[in-house]
Amino acid sequence: MDDIRVEELMTRDVVTCSPEQPLLDVVAQLSTRKFSCILVTEDDIPVGIITERDLVEVLFETLQGVTWNELAIKNFMSSPVVTVSEDTLLEEAVSISHMKKIRHMPVVDTDGILTGILTQTDLIAGCYQSS
Question: Does pTM top 0.70 for this prediction?
Answer without folding.
Answer: yes
